[in-house]
Amino acid sequence: MSLQDRIQHVEERIQAACDRSGHNRNDVNIVAVTKYVSVEMTQTVLDQGILHIGENRPQNAIPKWEALQGRGAWHFIGHLQSRKVKDVVGKFKYIHSLDRISLAEEVDKRAAASGVEVLAFVQVNVSGESTKQGLEPSEVEAFLQEMERYTHIKVIGLMTMAPIEEDPELTRPVFRRLRELRDELNAKMVTREPLTELSMGMSGDFEIAIEEGATWVRLGTILVGKGEED
Ligand SMILES: *Cc1c(COP(=O)(O)O)cnc(C)c1O
Fold this sequence. Notes:
Blueprint: H1 3-21, E1 29-33, H2 39-47, E2 52-55, H3 58-67, E3 73-76, H4 85-88, E4 94-98, H5 101-114, E5 118-123, H6 140-147, E6 153-159, H7 172-187, E7 197-199, H8 206-211, E8 216-219, H9 221-224
Parallel strand pairs: 1-2, 1-8, 2-3, 3-4, 4-5, 5-6, 6-7
The structure holds pyridoxal-5'-phosphate.
């Protein structure tokens, strides 16, 4: 399948998931996860009008960003080591993996120095798997309160990863819990402005995530491929 065909196929499935669940297609944003593919393929993705690019490793992402001169809007979606923050801030507008105060401290410092504001998602380990990064749901409220003092980071929502399931339906409770958590935090007015965004859903489970209210889906394999073809 060509990239154009893949995009169309994904687009149809996103629209169908929105229709099934009463969501507006305009509320769902696609991050094309290009971590498996080349600079050339990433450029083709941008040429097709997909502007949000997701990468999870600075050592692969930075050369790609430089080759493409930062075209598009870049999302850092992987575990971020504090010592890599200086390479990421100023290039990546979004960080989906904010999961500790020491990281916030460093991001804020670098953002202040570069005169930028970083848009962030707090990563939550809803499923409780020990292999997953993220805060426990019960820790998020206190974390957000502490975040208020970092003026160069704007927390816009929550992010989670569901366990890999053969039956995507099994991921539904994880996505639903993240949405409920966001709504609870908003009801308590924990942040100055309500958290509007939910980053959830990947190639295997994005339709379920959209049904449960995802506003950002992070799509690698299904959208741009794994890098063996095209
Ligand atoms: C790799 C990755 C994705 C995309 O995975 P696919 O299953 O290929 O769509 C999404 N989110 C994160 C955090 C990733 O690391």
